[in-house]
Amino acid sequence: MIATIMESSQVTTWPPLYTVEKSRRTKRVRLNIHPQTGLTIHLPYHTRRPVDIDALLIEKKAWILKHSALLEQAAQKDNVNLPTSLSLSAIDETWQIDHMQNCAKPTLFAAAGSRLVIMDKDLNIERAFRLLHLWLKRKAAQHLTPWLRELSLRHQLPFNNVAIRNQKTRWGSCSSSKNIQLNYKILFLPKALAEHILLHELSHLQHLNHSRAFWRLLSALDPHCHEHTKALKTIEAELPAWLY
Ligand SMILES: [Zn+2]
Q1: Which of 89, 97, 126, 244 has minimal Cβ neighbours within 10 Å of its Cβ?
Q2: Can you give the pTM of this predicted structure?
Q3: Cα 202 to middle of ligand 1, angstroms
Q4: For residue 141, pLDDT beyond 90
Q5: Enclosing domain of residue 157
Q6: Cα(211) to centroid of ligand 1, in Å?
């Protein structure tokens, strides 16, 4: 499972709300701001002396305020306008999005020239996003499922079922009954990162934890495992806000 802690906490007031995450893999104190999870303070598991969070917040105040304002602006803009295109890097596809006025039931269809057409009597942004989410879910099933099967066969890591979802905080998960769930936001990631997630979940078929043995297996399947794991931590902030 690749997860991030979900606690909606926009940084609009001071002192800001924050989440603390301690990890054995974090080597130094690091701050991160994400449109969904707000401010996260990453701390190493063991520190020589306790970290003074209040002092840290004051020290980083300018950075925190600047980045939270930028993210809020981006999120507001993203959530009121229909995107003009979708860039599905993982599968090398770009789709233009058009709206057509039509009195029939609101619907979305794929037209020639990689165009996604949303038909609706007037453009209701929430309905449009709902249609786009449904389409993305089908698209992910068409592409991520065979991709996972191919990797599963190649590396002899058989699974039971795969389901596509839009979990708020996970790229994917794997259960003890060998069922894998994948997030359709994976479609928006660079191909290598998308494959890294599929390999991550396949590795859980042998190790249902993040033990050393798990990372050894994943590193054998993905030689750039370390960089990819790191890149995934920050890339969420680059995805369109309406996906969340
Ligand atoms: Zn995992």
Answers
A1: 126
A2: 0.72
A3: 9
A4: yes
A5: 85-243
A6: 10
